[in-house]
Structure prediction request, 908 residues.
Amino acid sequence: MRMQDDAPPGLPSELTPAPQDVGAPPDGAPAVERVSYLGFLVGLEMYGLPLEHLRDVSRLKRLRRIPGAPAHVAGLMNVRGEIVCALDTRAILLLPPAPSRAGGFLIALRGFPDPLGLVVDAITDVYAIDPAAVAPLPASCPATRARLSIGSATVADGVMTLLDLRQMVAQP
Amino acid sequence: MTMPNASAFAGKFAEEARDRLKTLTTALLRLEEAPGDTEAAAEVLRQGHNIKGSARMLGFLDISEVAHVLEELFVRAKHDPSVLGRAGFDAAFSAVDALARRVEQLAAGVIPAADMSAVCETLSRLAGVSTPSRAAGSSEQQEAISQPAAAEPPPASSAPQSLRVPVARLNGLTHLAAELVIHTLQTTQRQAELRGLNGVVGRLRDRMREARLARPAQAAAAAREIAECAEALEHVSRRLRHFLGTFSDDCVRLNLITEEFRQTVIELTMLPLSTVFDAFPRAIRDLTRDVDKEVELTITGGETELDKRIIEHIADPMIHLLRNAIDHGIEVPAERLRKGKPAAGRVTISAEQQGNRIVVTMRDDGQGIDPDALRAAAVARGIGSAADMAQWTEARLVELIFDAGFSTRASATDVSGRGVGMEIVKDVVVRMGGAVRVQSERDRGTAVLLDLPLSLALLRVVLVEAAGELFALPTASVRRLLHVRSDEIAGPLQNGAGIDLGEEIVPLASLSMLLNGFMPEAAARQPVLVAAAGDRSVGLIVEAVHDEQELVFEELRAPLREQRTFSGAAILGNGDIVPILDVGALADLAANASAPTTSRPAVRIERRGGRVLVVEDSLVAGELQKSILAAAGYDAHIAHDGAEALEMLAEGAWDLVVADVDMPRMDGFELTLRLRADPRFQALPVIIVTAREAAEDKRRGLEAGADAYVLKREFDQLHLLDTVQRLILRSAGAHV
Prediction:
């Protein structure tokens, strides 16, 4: 019931995590298998994270701020009965704070020892990307963003920066 | 070689072997104590043989080899007990240790054999058998040595991954689940009933509206219509009354079942303290070996059950206390004899349940803690002048051993008879919501009391509001709820106020200020919760006190794990998340944020505990309860039966009733029923205190509308006061 409420519009209802290891370059046999990425917006920029790290997407609501928490922690959110720590993606990417707090989504992550999620502005789509088509970021890219991503890819909706989730989560 | 699927069975084997090694250790200790104990000898042989058998079957030849020579030694000992001297037992214990380490490796998935040759050789030599040369075994050992993975034992995962649960408990759960389903169905039916009534009311409303709009010519018909509607309404009202009656019955029943359900679920994760205690006889053996001391250990209450997580956390502190008792408490035999004590020191470990707490006591009859040495150490550390320290009572001095840095080996505390790391012990216990107390008497001995909660899973909290947000404060830490006028505290708060409670002054701080660094606009009267963690207290000004709830406690995880001001978080009934405050950290913050306690301006508070009516026909019991309540700051009065209680209640304002069951004229059940039927007293908290232990009576009491039921058997001051405080807090919260 709540799943229906929480599912953002325009997102395919069946998200099948891609089995490939994203970080690994295709070695040996020519791997043409594509990797699925969830695209989302933070500000005007589009970012992507491997679908295999996605657990759940829900509208950002009743986010509980924790006084004294590190700057990159937006707060705690109840995601289907589990207390998930919501990371402030803007703060991690060193972007200015969102002009308004209205709206937004929480992408709950899987594959980390602690329950974590990323606060983002909007969800765009799921894209299948050929690992060979991942390009390095332009040299003009800010150092922080370069450190937190593995490259960029051009998709139907524009250019997407592919995030290195482990680096994102390891933020001090 | 190992069976191809040996690894699949390694976990199961390890689980069984752990138990067997434990039994084996106990039997070895018994046998060493009493060499003629044939039963213990038989047990050693049985366990050794079983381990050998299973290990061989699964191809863990290194294990079976050790078990085999161990068995040989004890077979030989049957005919020649002399082989089991000190050396024999040492060898046997080190074999058990080696096996235990190997078993943990298996549990962690390290299958290749380990090198056990040293252990085997010692045992074989003692048993007088030649070192068995098993080609397969030794070649495998060679293999193992070349594999670095097997050489380094992985971090032992001492916590088993599965739990054994008595069938009776599971059956209990099954029954409760069935009962829950039935009551849920009933509630659904009531919903239909309510919907029906709502429909009737809606139709009546429409009919009356129409009648009101009727033209004057139809006035007579309209009047008739309205009269009919009134009659129908009367019928609806009767049905609603009936509905409310049955519905509140449902609620009571559902609450009882839920309570029982929750209790049973909690019990599933409870372990007996013997899980920890069983390791102590062996620890004593190891600890006394090199210090030439003799120690007799007595353990009682090992069957007492506690939350698994608490059990896992207190094992190390307990061993630490045991080491302290042996190293620093118990004297060497010569000195003991000189003091007129038996040569062997006595260490007693006991555990008992007190209400919803478990008190574990470790007592030794050693030299006790030397207060003069403590005084000297305190002066050396600048805690106070020699004159100051002379004023301190021994009880207060002894508490110093818990201060961080005080009990380091380099400090004089070591000389005073208590060793290192007491602050770590305290830290672990306080973190779990417990407390540590020490009692010591020179040359009579020392007792350390660990006061532990029964369970960590559920936490009773008071919800408070600060800067418009809810926070949870553990009820166990709340000492008092007061109200202060904001004009009284505005000035003093600027420069770090204290709150004068008569017996002590505690730092006063605004919760919003501590957490957010700003003060919200103050109301005319503000609630202050005086909370304590260990020996630190703080008066927290909040904007409002909401109700008290029982929440499922969850620790804060990374990246919030280091957040000192919160111990955890929980999800409320409406799905919102509430952070749980850490009282110790808040007290530190408040103390650091302001001037030292002695110089801070103090806000004096008049004692307002609440007015409590004790209804009790026994003079002794009545006076006892009255004095307990009065000592805790309540204004307590006695009524001698239910009828008198009703008269007294009608005359003044009361905050709570404590009622006995068996009384002349009107018993406690009837009194409670009457109070609940009277709109003036519907919200008045009622505690029934009685000797009646039957569950049926408890049900009757709660069904009559009592808020709590305290048995006279378990009737102790703290439990009653806890309940009184909790209920008064709850009803005060509802009014704030």
